C-alpha cells in the first residue's frame, strides 16, 4: 500500500464495541483470525449498558413449560409478522446457550432458590423468560464480553470514528477509512471481512434514550456501500423517558415504576390513561381507579390498570395529552408514585430509579412526581442480512445487533435485544470466518475511495463562513420528532422529506473552526451525513407504509393492512454517497417453512 | 484530573486503566454441568456489588498512591482493579488464585485505606470495606499465616501460582 496514512491490516475488522461487536470478535478470534475492533467511544461504554430488564432465553428455569417454540411465536407476534422468520427461529433456539456461555465467562445473573439462573416476566413474553441482574443486565453483558475480549488479547481502537467503508476494484468490502478523535489524524484499515455492529440511530430525534454515539453510522455506511436497509420506518418509542433536565433528556424510566403502582397524570392532576383504552384491550383493562388499584395486590381482584397497556399505546396517549395542552412545563406528563406508595417501598423496589432522579435531576421520587415523556428508544429497521451468516448483500460485509434488520420485525419485545446481540454477534463472527476461509475475500483497497472520503471530511475546514453543525443537529432532531415521530401522517412526512433536502444543503455548507484534535464540532459534522441518510430512509419507509403496524403509526391509516405484511421496504442509493438519491423497492418476506407456520397457528 | 494526563480541555488519557485490565487473569470455572451451573443468590451477591462498576475511573483518579506518586503506576493497579480482583477471588466457580499476583505485582499493600475511592464512587460501591480489606485479609492469610506457611512448605500447593494464572487463558 502506498499511502501516507497510518495503516492497519486485519482478517476481520469489527466496527462497534457493543454486545454484538464484542461477541463477534470472540468468535472470529476463536477461529484463529487476526481481529481488530474499532469504537467511536471507549471500550465498555456502548449502548448495550442501557438495557435494564434482561435477556430473553427460553431456559425454562422458572416456567418449565417454556421452550424455543413459544419464544419464536412470541417474537413473531410482537414483530407483527414482519420479522425474518429464520432469524427469529435461530434467536429462540440459541439464546439459552449464549446465556450459559456468558456465565462461563464471568457473568453473575440473579438466582432462583435452587441456584439456577432466575428469569423474570416481561411484556409480550408468555412465560418468565428474562435472565437478569437487577435492573442493570446490559452492563453485566458488556462487562463480561469486554473482559473476555481483553483476556483474548484483541486489538481495540478506541475513540476512532469510521468515515466510510472501502471496496476493492470488484465491489467487495476491503476495509475502511477513519480518523482518531484525539488527534484528528486519518487512519486506514484493510480487512478481508468487515462486521458492522454500530448499534442504533436514535440521535436524530429530540427525545431519545440514545447517547451521542447513536447517529446511525453503520446503517448509513452499509447503505452507501451498496447494502439494503429494511423496515426503517419501524422505530420503538419508550413511553417513559426523562424530559428534564436537558443533560439527561430521554433517559429511560423503567416500566417497573408503573408495574409497582406508579400512575400517569396530566397538568390537571387527572389520571388520563382511562380515557385511552383501545377497544381491543377493554376486556382486560380496569374501568375505574378503584378496580385498577386492587390489581397490584391481587391480580385476580381486578383487571390491569391502563398504565400497563403495551408501550406504543401508552406512548400515544402521552403524546395526545401533551398535544392537547395538558402537559408538564418541559413537554411531558407526570409519573406519580410518591402519592401512592411509602418512601420505604419506593426505595426498596426501585433503587436505580430513586438514585437516577436524585443524582441527575435533584428530584426525590418518594415525595415528588417525575416529569416524563415518550423517548426514541430502538430502531427495528436495519441492514438486510442472511440469518445464518449475518452476511449483507455486499461481499465481505456483515452486520449484527441493532444495525441489522429483520430479527424484530415491526416491533421488538423487551429482552430480545440483548439475546439478539450475542446470538447474531456470534453468527457474524462465524459468517466472516467462513467467508475468509472460502478464499474469495478482497486483497486490496481502492485508494481513490479513501481520498474521496477524506476530502469530504475536511470540507468544513475550508469555509470561513457557514452553518454551525450543532444548529443543524438541533433543528434536525426537532423536525424528525415533529414530523416522523410517534404518530405520522402523509402531510407531515412529505414536509419532512422536503426539509431533508434542505438539511442536505445545510450540511454541505457547514463551516468548522479550530484544529482537528478533539474538535466536537467537526466530529459532529462527520456524523451528520449518516444522520441525514438514515432520516431519509425512515421518512421514505414511513411515507410508503400506508398502514399502522408495530413501531410505525399512521394517523391517516390507523389499521394494519394484510397486504403490507408480505414484504419489507428495502432502500439503496443511486450513487453510493450520502447525498445520493434513495431507491426503494418491495422486498418479499422470507417464505416461512411449514413447521414454523404451524407454531404460529397453534394459538391463533 | 491529576492522575491522568490532560489531552485537551477536560479530556484526559485514561489508557492506564485499559493496560491494567489486560493484566487480570480471567475467571477459570470448572466445566459446565448439564443444565448450567448451580450458584446461590447470597454467593453471587458479593461479586454483583463490584460488577455495578461503570468504569468512570474516579476512584483511580482520587487514589493517593498514583495521584501523588506517578512512579507507582508501574506496580499498582488501583481501586477499580482491586474490586475486580476481589470479585474474581470471591466468585463461587473460580479456580484461579490471584493472591500472590495482587500482592507482588498489583501493589495491594500500597493502599492505606483512606477510603477516598469509596467516597467518590457514583455507584456507592463499598470499595474499601467490601473489596480491598477482605482482599488484603486473604493475601495476608495466604502469605503470613505461620500455619499456612508451614503447610505450603510441607505439601505442594494445590492451587495455581500467580505466574501460571497470569498466562492461563479462559476456557
Give a description of the structure:
The complex is a heterodimer of chains A (604) and B (171). Chain A is α/β, with parallel strands linked by helices and 604 residues long. Chain A contains 16 helices and 21 strands. Among the domains of chain A are: 239-377, Succinate dehydrogenase/fumarate reductase flavoprotein, catalytic domain (Flavocytochrome C3, Chain A, domain 1), CATH 3.90.700; 447-588, Fumarate reductase/succinate dehydrogenase flavoprotein-like, C-terminal domain (Methane Monooxygenase Hydroxylase, Chain G, domain 1, Up-down Bundle). Chain A has helices at residues 19-30, 68-78, 85-104, 137-151, 217-225, 256-259, 289-297, 311-323, 343-349, 351-361, 416-437, 447-462, 469-483, 490-508, 520-544, 594-601, and strands at 6-15, 35-38, 55-56, 119-120, 130-131, 155-157, 160-167, 173-180, 186-196, 229-230, 235-242, 263-265, 333-336, 370-379, 382-384, 397-399, 404-405, 487-488, 553-554, 567-573, 582-588. In chain A, strand 8 and strand 9 (186-196) form a beta hairpin. The relative contact order of chain A is 0.16. The mean pLDDT of chain A is 93. Chain B is an all-alpha fold and 171 residues long. In chain B, 49% of the residues lie in helices and 3% in strands. Chain B has a two-stranded antiparallel ribbon. In chain B, helix 5 (79-90) packs across helix 8. The longest helix of chain B has 18 residues, at 127-144. The termini of chain B are far apart.
Number of helices of chain B: 10
Poorly predicted ranges of chain B (pLDDT <50, ≥5 residues)?
A: 161-171
- Main beta-sheet annotation of chain A: 7 strands, mixed
- Biggest sheet of chain B, open or closed, and with what strands and sense? 2 strands, antiparallel
Q: Please identify, by name, the CATH architecture of chain B.
A: Orthogonal Bundle
How many beta-strand runs of chain B? 2
Q: Mean pLDDT of chain A, rounded to whole units?
A: 93
- Please, what is the CATH homologous superfamily of the domain at 447-588 in chain A? Fumarate reductase/succinate dehydrogenase flavoprotein-like, C-terminal domain
How large is the share of residues in beta strands of chain B? Answer: under 5%
Termini gap of chain A: 60 Å
Amino acid at each position: 500500500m502506498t499511502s501516507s496514512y497510518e495503516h492497519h491490516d486485519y482478517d476481520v475488522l469489527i466496527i462497534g464495541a457493543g454486545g454484538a461487536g464484542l461477541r463477534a470478535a470472540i468468535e472470529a478470534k476463536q477461529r484463529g483470525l487476526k481481529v481488530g475492533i474499532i469504537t467511536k467511544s471507549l471500550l465498555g461504554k456502548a449502548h448495550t449498558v442501557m438495557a435494564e430488564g434482561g435477556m430473553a432465553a427460553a431456559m425454562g428455569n422458572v416456567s418449565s413449560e417454556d421452550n424455543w417454540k413459544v419464544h419464536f411465536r412470541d417474537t413473531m407476534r410482537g414483530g407483527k409478522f414482519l420479522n425474518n422468520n429464520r432469524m427469529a427461529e435461530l434467536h429462540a433456539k440459541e439464546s439459552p446457550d449464549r446465556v450459559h456461555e456468558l456465565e462461563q465467562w464471568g457473568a453473575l445473573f440473579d438466582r432462583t432458590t435452587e441456584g439456577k439462573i432466575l428469569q423474570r416476566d416481561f411484556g409480550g413474553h408468555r412465560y418468565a423468560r428474562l435472565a437478569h441482574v437487577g435492573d442493570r443486565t446490559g452492563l453485566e453483558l458488556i462487562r463480561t464480553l469486554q473482559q473476555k475480549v481483553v483476556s483474548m488479547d484483541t486489538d481495540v481502537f478506541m475513540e476512532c470514528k469510521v468515515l466510510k467503508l472501502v471496496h476493492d476494484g470488484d465491489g467487495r468490502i476491503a476495509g475502511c477509512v477513519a480518523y482518531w478523535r484525539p488527534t484528528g489524524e486519518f487512519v486506514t484499515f484493510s480487512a478481508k471481512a468487515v462486521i458492522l455492529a454500530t448499534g442504533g440511530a436514535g440521535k436524530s430525534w429530540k427525545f431519545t434514550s440514545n447517547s451521542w454515539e447513536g447517529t446511525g453510522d453503520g446503517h448509513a455506511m452499509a447503505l452507501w456501500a451498496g447494502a439494503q436497509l429494511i423496515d426503517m420506518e419501524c422505530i420503538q418509542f419508550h413511553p417513559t423517558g426523562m424530559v428534564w433536565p436537558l443533560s439527561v433528556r430521554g433517559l429511560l424510566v423503567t416500566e417497573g415504576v408503573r408495574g409497582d403502582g406508579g400512575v400517569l397524570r396530566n397538568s390537571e392532576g387527572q389520571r388520563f390513561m382511562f380515557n385511552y383504552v383501545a377497544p381491543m384491550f377493554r376486556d382486560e383493562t380496569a374501568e375505574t381507579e378503584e378496580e385498577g388499584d386492587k390489581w397490584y395486590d391481587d391480580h385476580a381482584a381486578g383487571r390491569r390498570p391502563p398504565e400497563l397497556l403495551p408501550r406504543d399505546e401508552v406512548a400515544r396517549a402521552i403524546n395526545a395529552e401533551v398535544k392537547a395542552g395538558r402537559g408538564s412545563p418541559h413537554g411531558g406528563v407526570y409519573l406519580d408514585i410518591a402519592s401512592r406508595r411509602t418512601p420505604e417501598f419506593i426505595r426498596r423496589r426501585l433503587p436505580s430509579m430513586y438514585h437516577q432522579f436524585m443524582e441527575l435531576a435533584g428530584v426525590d421520587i418518594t415525595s415528588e412526581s417525575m416529569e416524563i415523556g415518550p423517548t426514541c428508544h430502538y430502531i427495528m429497521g436495519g441492514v438486510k442480512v442472511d440469518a445464518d451468516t449475518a452476511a449483507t448483500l455486499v461481499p465481505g460485509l456483515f452486520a449484527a445487533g441493532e444495525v441489522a434488520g429483520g430479527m424484530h420485525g415491526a416491533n421488538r419485545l423487551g429482552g430480545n435485544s440483548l439475546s439478539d446481540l450475542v446470538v447474531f454477534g456470534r453468527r457474524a463472527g462465524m459468517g466472516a470466518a467462513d467467508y475468509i476461509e472460502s478464499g474469495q475475500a478482497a486483497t486490496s483497497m481502492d485508494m481513490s475511495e479513501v481520498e474521496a472520503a477524506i476530502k469530504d471530511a475536511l470540507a468544513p475546514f475550508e469555509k470561513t463562513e457557514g452553518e454551525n453543525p450543532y444548529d443543524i443537529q438541533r433543528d434536525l432532531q426537532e423536525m424528525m420528532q415533529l414530523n416522523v415521530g410517534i404518530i405520522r401522517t402523509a402531510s407531515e412526512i412529505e414536509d419532512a422529506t422536503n426539509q431533508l433536502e434542505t438539511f442536505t444543503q445545510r450540511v454541505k455548507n457547514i463551516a468548522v473552526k479550530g484544529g482537528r484534535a478533539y474538535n466536537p464540532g467537526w466530529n459532529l459534522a462527520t456524523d451528520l451525513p449518516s444522520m441525514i441518510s438514515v432520516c431519509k430512509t425512515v421518512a421514505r419507509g414511513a411515507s410508503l407504509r400506508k398502514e399502522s403496524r408495530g413501531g410505525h403509526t399512521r394517523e391517516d391509516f390507523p389499521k394494519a393492512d394484510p397486504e403490507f405484511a408480505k414484504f419489507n421496504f428495502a432502500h439503496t442509493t443511486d450513487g453510493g454517497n450520502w447525498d445520493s438519491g434513495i431507491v426503494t423497492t418491495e422486498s418479499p418476506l422470507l417464505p416461512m417453512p411449514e413447521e414454523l407456520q404451524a407454531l404460529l397457528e397453534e394459538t391463533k | 484530573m491529576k492522575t491522568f494526563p490532560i489531552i485537551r480541555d477536560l479530556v484526559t488519557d485514561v489508557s492506564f486503566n485499559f493496560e491494567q485490565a489486560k493484566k487480570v487473569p480471567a475467571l477459570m470455572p470448572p466445566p459446565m454441568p448439564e443444565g448450567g451451573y448451580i450458584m446461590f443468590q447470597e454467593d453471587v451477591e458479593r461479586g454483583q456489588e463490584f460488577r455495578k462498576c461503570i468504569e468512570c475511573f474516579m476512584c483511580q483518579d482520587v487514589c493517593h498512591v498514583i495521584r501523588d506518586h506517578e512512579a507507582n503506576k508501574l506496580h499498582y493497579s488501583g481501586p477499580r482493579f482491586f474490586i475486580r480482583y476481589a470479585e474474581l477471588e470471591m466468585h463461587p466457580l473460580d479456580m484461579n488464585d490471584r493472591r500472590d499476583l495482587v500482592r507482588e505485582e498489583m501493589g495491594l499493600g500500597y493502599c492505606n485505606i483512606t477510603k477516598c475511592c469509596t467516597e467518590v464512587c457514583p455507584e456507592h460501591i463499598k470499595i474499601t470495606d467490601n473489596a480491598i480489606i477482605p482482599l488484603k485479609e486473604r493475601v495476608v492469610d495466604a502469605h503470613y499465616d505461620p500455619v499456612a506457611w508451614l503447610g505450603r512448605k510441607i505439601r505442594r500447593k494445590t492451587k495455581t501460582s500467580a505466574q501460571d494464572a497470569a498466562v492461563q487463558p479462559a476456557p
